[in-house]
Amino acid sequence: MMFLKHKYSTEDLIQDCKSGSRKAQELLYKQFAAKMMAVCMRYAVDKMEAEDMLQNGFIKVFQKIDDYRGDGSFEGWVRRIMVHSSIEYYRKHHKMMQVVELDDHTPEQSVNPAATANLSAKDLLGLIQQLSPGYKMVFNLYAIEGYSHKEIGDIMGISEGASKSQLSRARAILKEQVLKMEGKKYEYAG
Length: 190
What we know:
This protein is mainly alpha-helical. The protein has helices at residues 10-18, 22-41, 47-64, 74-93, 113-117, 121-130, 133-144, 149-156, 160-189. The longest helix has 30 residues, at 160-189.
């Protein structure tokens, strides 16, 4: 039996999960839970909600594990399930914000690269968490997960144009917040 070994490869765990092994599921969960929790946190209101999203996501991973053919990264496959599961959870438990398309796309002001270089990843993620739910989801799906506006529209049930508008607005809000943070740092330095 595979569990007598000290190290388990991901491929071995996947095969054992396909055979219904609870122990393999537990080990696979432990292997990916921390990374996938970070994914869920980007879509959740708080840590408790992210934990619920994580659990729901892993249930789907184990239900669909027979669909994984090994063509791409298993972690990427799991991440995609987590994103879709998190959005599904959010839709089910929260009233989705109405999305309005903006006709006028004002040119975005650029932020000084030196200002963003001083931001930690934690600060930036904190700013993203403060965005309204619609803006946060579109920003995460586009900027972090790499989805196209068409894919985002399909996932969220909005038009491609609405996705672009939401992203533009989210970026503008984030830039404004970055500038405010940098201004406060300079106040303390002087």
